[in-house]
Structure formats: structure tokens, C-alpha cells
Amino acid sequence: TNDDESRVILLRFGQDYDPDCKLMDDVLLAISDIVKAKCDIFLVDISEVPEFTQQYELYDPCTLMFFFKGRHLQLELGLGERYKITWPMGEEKELISIIDSIYRGAQQGRDL
What we know:
alpha+beta, 3 helices, 6 strands, 35% helix, 24% strand
């Protein structure tokens, strides 16, 4: 899904009508130009990818997952090891910081 393999892929899983997704989508739109050199952002409707939804247990209203070179990235956000963010992030600065950290770690070949 990415011509430039040096960028991280951020997938937002959810549904456009969900209030949590609307909040997250506003933040993603606001930061998209700021992070575009490091991260490609895609919105995915969970009803369109039932196999993926089941495989990654996407049961929350809004989920963010990060990939690099086709590999799912693990995150450490102070809540133990996780493979996804399952809460809406209303702070642009916080999400930019997370993307920057994920990008740097991915470039070094490690999970975060």
C-alpha cells in the first residue's frame, strides 16, 4: 500500500459515523500535512474488512494500528505492550509525538 517504503502506515479502523472515529479523523486530518514525510494515513471501514477485523480483534469503535514494510508494529505507551491504540486521541501534539517515535523506531528496525 506504500510506494515509499521508508514511511510508516497508520490505519484507522472504525466507521465514519462513530463519534470516536469522527474525533480521531479530525485529528488525523489536522496532522496529515505535518506527518506526511513519515507516515501515510488511511481510514478503513471495519465492515469492509471482516477477516482483518477478526484477526486483529478490532472490537473497539476506533482503532489505530501502525505498519512498516508490511509488518505490524508493537507499541509501548505505558500500558504494557500493545499492537493498537483503541481510544480517540484529541491532542494533535500527542499523536504527532507518537508517530515521530514510531517512525524513528521503525527506521532503526525495532518495535516501540
